[in-house]
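User: Sequence for NIPSNAP family protein below. Tokens please.
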Amino acid sequence: MPTARSLATAAAAVAFLLTLAPAVQAEVYELRIYKTNEGKLDALNARFRDHTMRLFKKHGIESMGYWVPTDRDDSQNTLIYVIKHESRDAAKESWKNFLADPEWKKAAAESGVGRLAERPESTYMELTDYSPEYRNGEGDENDVFELRIYEAAEGKLGKLDARFRDHTIGLFAKHGIKSVAYWHPTDSPDSENTLIYIVEHESDEAAQLSWKSFAADPEWKKAAAASGVGRLANRPTSIYMTPTDYSPIK
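Assistant: Structure tokens for NIPSNAP family protein:
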């Protein structure tokens, strides 16, 4: 029969081992940008619509949204999408299993897409604490989305987050800009200075009017001046996009 002392020793050993166990990993998002060769975007969309999304789900990858840029050149060859994984380790395992799946290999070979024009860009991201819960609205065929990437000056990302959390998102809504999601990249150095987000506008024209009225709003000017963010390190990247017909986010 074990003694009280041996039980205490065993309990202490278990407690020690638990401290060595890795922390539970949080779910991560992945922003991916594909560029096809000339004339191959329709074939790529068909492959995602008919095969890829279903195989993603099979391997634990959740599809969030798929978009094509509205810029005339990029609209001919670019697909932008966001997916979600249970964790970074789960993402690695999911991609491994997906790429090894015979059904995927067959679909890829028969799709007519061929090799992409460029290696896919991939950015792993985590939601900010102020990212809203997005719900599709009634929708309109003219609705456009906007992917924006901000790079804060050194040491200013926290202040940029505070400005979005406390002021910007509310003012966006005031001026007809619907927030979809806000993320930080998970990998250094971008994790230290970068904010990635997507917003929705009723149309291209509405977007221009919204940004104009937002920038002129005295409440925004006051919040910007008081935030301590200063100038961004680089001019924000802005990509206007329309959702594909198979995108969960419309």
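The two ends are 65 Å apart (CA to CA).
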